[in-house]
């Protein structure tokens, strides 16, 4: 019996020594070689098509980065389901877990200050993306970044798709030949920086391009396919035979408008334009549901978000990796794609 006790005690001592050694290695590995980085990603809504695309691209970037650099990446992605309070708690958790950097697609862009206060206290760098905090907030700390697309540029590209089509053949837009192009408008969330600017500059570009416009009506469909489809359904019955063009702030709403045309068996070549170039949008373009879209480079978008977060996590100089405007902003490239 005494012998057994002795063996157990010896085994216990060996275990303790081993545990101590591996703990030391872990700590040393983290502090000296920085062989692992931990990044939290907070999404405003995981069911948004565009955000979903960015999410998979970000996960792809993390894998590619691990392969290229040998640095292990732990990336946790959370979904706030459209609730700012939920997102605030998710950020609190990221802070308490000691993440090295976080990427935030803030639910309410006017409420970013809460997240900024906490992350500043915790010295945790933040890469905001897609939903831009107000400039005043962005200026509060040098470790706040924003990655997005230039909304005016997007809108001018979208408007020009239609200007070109009109120049080539006015009757392809002015379907009833009354000298006016009658359009309806589907807009994104009213609080989103992209929605207002996209609408304003898309219409302005059409006007500047000499397209005679007549607005029938418009509505906010919050980037959402089914809301857009419901509006379009209503307009098709309120304004039968009048709609010639549908201008949409994103591809999902463009697809929603097309769903309504399909449901009502409308064969008239109404032209629908979107923005994003999501896989669904590009597929809609291929099958002729959408006439054109503005595609941002989704790979570049995710790569830049990731590179900033990774550089911050390793304590590297971000500017050496990514060329930033004003030391904190990055605008992704984009291009118009449309049926020729
Ligand atoms: C995209 C939309 C997306 C929204 C989410 C916009 O920039 O064009 O498709 O729903 O961002 O914030």
TrEMBL record:
Pfam families: Peripla_BP_4 (PF13407). InterPro entries: MglB-like_PBP1 (IPR044085), Peripla_BP_I (IPR028082), SBP_2_dom (IPR025997). Keywords: Metal-binding, Signal. The keyword Metal-binding applies. It is found in: Cell envelope. The ABC transporter complex is composed of one ATP-binding protein (MglA), two transmembrane proteins (MglC) and a solute-binding protein (MglB). This is D-galactose/methyl-galactoside binding periplasmic protein MglB.
